[in-house]
Amino acid sequence: MVHGGSVRAPDEDLALHYAREFYGRRQESHRLWVVPRDAIVELDDPDLLQPPFDRSFKRPGGYLIKHKLEAAKERARQGMTDG
Amino acid sequence: MDEATRGALAELLLTLADDEFVLGYWDSEWTGIAPMLEEDVAMSSVSQDEIGHARAWYELLAGLTDADADRIAYGRAPDEYRHAAIMNHARTDWAFTIARRFLYEHADAVRLEALARSSHAPTAELAAKMRREETYHLLHFDVWLRRLAEAGGESRQRLADALQRLYTDAAAVFTPLAGESLLLASGILPEPLDGLRLGWLAAVTPPLAGLGLPGPTDAGPPAADGRTRRTADFAWLHGEMTMVARSEVGATW
Asked: In what helix (H) or strand (E) does residue B86 lie, and over which residues does it extend?
């Protein structure tokens, strides 16, 4: 489920119709879920979402593996010619 | 298919195409000025759907009569169009537009339901395809009818006035066709148009009654000129919608 966008509408029926027009009329959607704004539970605490310490180890980009990958490829190539 | 039946089918297809074409043009006039941004997009999109349906019917007709679909759509004089009298009126106000849409969408739904059972396979296939898209149109304009009716005051009054003004011309969707007996005999049209008119009355009466609005009365088969009488409003629209095509006759788009 990804956020498609928002619409303004006076009631549920028209909210669905407008969601269909804005996010479904070009056959780009298979399903749409529409919820009223006040039903959305929000999390915006920066201590939870943007903690101050380095979190790069939580992301794949936090690891430098390029040279390891190249070495592995080289080993594989050697193995193929040797074998 | 014999020549006379082919002519009757061509007459039927032209009425289907012209209804959708002219309505699509009228309501695309809301683009930029609909009551709110979301509805502006919705109304423009629904109008485009109708032009798309018109195009499909014109192409089927063009194949049948060895003609050019664009030329049929844009190359005729105002009195050669065969849309129902309900499309003779200008866009007017939002309540009028909703009243016309509500009445026409239900008429179209009844007609497409029958045509989906047509013995002419290309017609049946197109009708079945269109019904899937028209489902949303029905829902949308049913919702708007309810909103305006329940809003009371000026909204409800304008809606009620528009409905009253349109009932006779709306029934003209079911104006008898010259070749109707041939269409019925061949199964191209599975039900007489006047039977479909009664189906339409049965479809629109309960929702209107539920909102306390006076519905159309059964005034018998529509007058013979239901698809040939024309107005100054339509003459104006015709000038608008053919303007580009007329600016360079014979151009390829």
From this structure: none
- Which chain B residues are Cβ-neighbours of A28 within 8 angstroms? none
Task: Identify whether the C-beta of residue B116 lies closer than 8 Å to the C-beta of residue B105.
Answer: no
Structure tokens at B244: 């580009």
Place of tokens 């039927």: B12
Show the domain range for A69.
Answer: 12-82
Instruction: Judge whether residue B195 has pLDDT over 80.
Output: yes
DSSP class of residue A65 equals -
B59 token code pair: 């192409």
Which residues does chain B have within 8 Å of residue A29's beta carbon, measured at their own beta carbons? none
User: In chain B, what are the domains?
Assistant: 3-247 (1.20.1260.10)
Residue A2 in domain: no
CB nearest to A20's CB, from B36, B136, B147: B136
pLDDT digits (tens, 9 = 90+) for B197-239: 999 999 999 999 999 999 999 999 999 999 999 999 999 999 9
Instruction: Provide the CB-side half-sphere exposure for B211 (13 A, CA).
Output: 23
A58 falls in which pLDDT band (50, 70, 90)?
confident
Distance (Å, whole) CA B106 – CA B87: 15
Residue A50: inside a domain, yes or no?
A: yes
| A13 three-state secondary structure | helix
Under the banding of pLDDT at 50, 70 and 90, the label for residue B252 is: confident
Residue B45 in contact with partner chain A when CB distance is under 8 A: yes
Q: What is the ipTM of this complex?
A: 0.82
Could you tell me if A23 lies within 8 Å of chain B, comparing CB atoms?
A: no
Annotate B31-85 with DSSP letters as a single string: TTTSSSHHHHHHHHHHHHHHHHHHHHHHHHHHHHHT--HHHHHHSS-GGG----G
**Dist. CA B97–CA B107, nearest whole Å:** 15
Give the closest of A10, A11, A22 to B41, CB-based: A22
